[in-house]
Amino acid sequence: MLRGRAWKFGHNVSTDQIAPGRYFHLRSDLPELAKHVLEDANPEFARNVQPEDLIVAGRNFGLGSSREHAASIIKLRGISAVLAQSFARIFFRNAINIGLPVIICDTDRIAQGDVLEVDLLKGRVRDVTRNIELDLEPLPGVMLAILQDGGLINHVQKHGDFSLYSDRGKPSSDQAGPSESS
After folding, report:
1. Which residue among 55, 98, 112, 127 has the highest number of C-beta atoms inside a 10 angstrom radius?
2. Looking at the DSSP assignment, which residues form a beta bridge with residue 117?
3. Cα(115)–Cα(129) distance, rounded to whole angstroms?
4. What CATH number does domain 2-139 carry, 3.40.50.80, 1.10.287.610, 3.20.19.10, 3.30.300.10?
5. Rounded to 10 degrees, what is the CA torsion of 147, 58, 69, 67?
6. What backbone phi and psi angles, to 5 degrees, belong to 8?
């Protein structure tokens, strides 16, 4: 269960807004670059974001260049998840690969500052502030396992491969995915 305060952004938040290009020279110093995350989209965010806060956005979050560090600096700032109506495909995969939950759901009813609880396994987002529940698009079992292990590298180190899947790419019968107790 994830719980945090919502930071609301609009549609089409690009990787250039997430990791401003003027700080390109910091790409080898991700903790320093993370101090500037999303400052072009909302200058208050970089200064005031707290660990476990959540990013809530509209459609097409993470569009633009395939900057892997865009997802990385969000995670480094302690953001527990990004909720959006849709994601740019490469940002979505980069986020999963580094262990940052990305959740597709209707974000229109969530406001800046709302307290949210996110249950990835049950597929629900609860807006505690507004006392509403939202369904989220469930992630495939292998993606949940990668997130649970802290990212793709940790997952492969732990399992030696994508152990949730047989040689044909279908779930093996004894490992259908993480259970609620795992």
Report:
1. 55
2. 3, 126
3. 6
4. 3.20.19.10
5. 120
6. -95, 130
